[in-house]
Amino acid sequence: MTETPPPPPPASPRRSAPARAGYRALRAVRQARRLLAVELGTPTAPGTPLLGTVRNLWLRRLPYGVAFAFAVSLLPVTIAVLSHDYDMAGGMAGALATAQAAPLLLAVTRPLQAWWVIFAADLICAQALSLLDGTVGRPWPWPPPVIVGYLALMLALSLRERRRTLIAVWLATGAAGVVSDIAAPDGIQSTWVLLFVLSGVVLMMGAILRERGDAQRKLIEQETISEAERARRTLLEERARIARELHDVVAHHMSVITVQADSAPYRIGGLPAAAADEFGAIAASARESLAEMRRLLGVLRSEESERHGGPEKAPQPGIGMLEKLVEATVRAGVPVELALPGEPTALEPAVDLSAYRIVQEALANVVRHAPGAPTRVSLRTTSDGARLTVLIVNSPPPAPATPSAPLETGGTGHGLVGMRERVRLVDGSLDTGPLPDGGFRVAAQLPLAPPAAPVSSPPTKDSGAL
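== histidine kinase ==
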């Protein structure tokens, strides 16, 4: 005999539309309650004082002074109002007033925790007042001192907590007012709408002020970062420009090495085969170095210079071209006096170029910032003959300053940044700064190069050169 299986359970009837709507509403209420609990239980930066990041010491102390003033003034006023106007016992009035006013001191560092204490004390106070005969005809559930203290607390909250927390506090305030209005005793002056509206206004204004301050701080930080990035970009551009200019100098030396190495077997008679091979290897290495230098120059050269004329083919300037530079500056409306060393000075190409560029940048700055100011440019060697002193001094511009024509041979536009980089490149020193009379001074110390050895002279063993 086979056992028959039990019948399946009956299918549950589908929920009706009103039941589904009620279920969704209940779920939404639970989610909202959970969200409110999270927002009201998670303070922002607890323990950090209001205005704690302000540099001014008095502004940092201001929240403490305001909170102390509110607490000290509201405590006796609340006790007097509760005991005299509402006929509450003195002990209970003192305890409730303390619970409503003293936490304002805590609001400076922990406003959300202070709100929990004050909100609970206000609810207890409203319940106690509803049981007293003196409440008839008077404001309820929030007496005037309670409203003032609560609004001060709302201001502290709005300056610290995020927007969702403020909305949760405001909704909790309104919900407490609605519940109290339902159970309100007869003959009272309801104040829950007044507190609900005023607290919303204070919360909104405080949040706007806080968000505006945050936006300003972020803007200042972004401007600081942007300024640093601009300075860094200017420095990198100037270094790339200096490297492009020095390419010709280095390429010239490499070309000389190549020519010397290639011509050595023909200039030096009886050269061993091993030495000839070594010279050939040196020449090949020099040519490879020149090729690498050209590739490096292609990387350093900006797209702008590539679009406007391709590679720079003009020879690099030196102090021998300062007279033309001074003439161009005079035509721009700046009287310039030039003093050069009496005797020709042997300079390394990099030093010669750096001296010219420093003078060029200084004169360009005079044209831009002190048009018409008398300027003196002097170059002289130090007493020990080891360094070249480049000095540019300009007087204050005439008043009123007359507009000047653009300088025909202008600088790079990087000013003191370019000067410092050029001086650092040649292991020199730079001193700049304003003068007491309103002028400006630029002084650079550049090392002088030793006299160059003749190209045709044979290398010595002690020198280590080929």
